[in-house]
Amino acid sequence: MFNDIGPLEVVTLVVLAVLVFGPDKLPKVIQDITRTIRKIREFSESAKQDIRGELGPEFKDFEFEDLNPKTFIRKQLDNDELGLKEIRNGFDLKKEMAEVTDAVHGREAESSSSSGASGSSGGRVDMTKKPEEPGKDDRPPFDADAT
Fold first, then answer.
1. Can you count the helices (H) and strands (E) in the chain?
2. CA 125 to CA 110: how far, in whole Å?
3. What is the DSSP letter of 57?
């Protein structure tokens, strides 16, 4: 419950509590707080039991923690009635990304070699030259006035 409270924060809270309530009232305040927390837990457990009783025997395994979406998905993935592990194992994202990367690098190498043969350097467009004929290249001609 208090996993992310460090020792410095605990000392600060204790000092603050002593300053606010005083050393003589502090034990009574702590008892009142623990009693209130205990009552709240009892109330929530009785409410959970009432809800489970009202839902009927079909929901006897129902846990309120399953209403948390992360817990629900984790439970469903562990159950694997739908064969999700087969789907997940059949789809290798790293392999797919490597194939896409290779394809992109392959296309870049081809386009840079063809553009290098046409006279432009490093894939840049030379603004001083006239655009090439559309039949030679798949790209439409460059229109300097349009930009």
1. 5, 0
2. 17
3. G
Does 74 lie in the same domain as 45?
Answer: no
Domain that holds residue 98: 69-112
Reading phi first (left if > 0) and then psi (alpha if -120 to 50, else beta), residue 52 is in alpha
Confidence of residue 4 (pLDDT cuts 50, 70, 90): confident
**19 within domain boundaries:** yes
* CA torsion angle 4 10 11 17 (round to 10): 140
In this structure, are 58 and 81 located in the same domain? no
Tell me: the pLDDT tens digits for 64-112?
777 788 887 777 776 656 566 666 677 777 888 888 888 888 765 444 4
CA atoms within 13 A on the CB side of 42: 6
Distance between CA atoms of 45 and 144, rounded to whole angstroms?
75
Tokens of 12: 């600060």
Residues 6+ apart with CB under 8 A from 60: 52
- The DSSP H or E segment spanning 1 is none
Q: How many angstroms from the chain centroid is the CA of residue 64?
A: 23
Q: Which two tokens stand for residue 20?
A: 């606010």
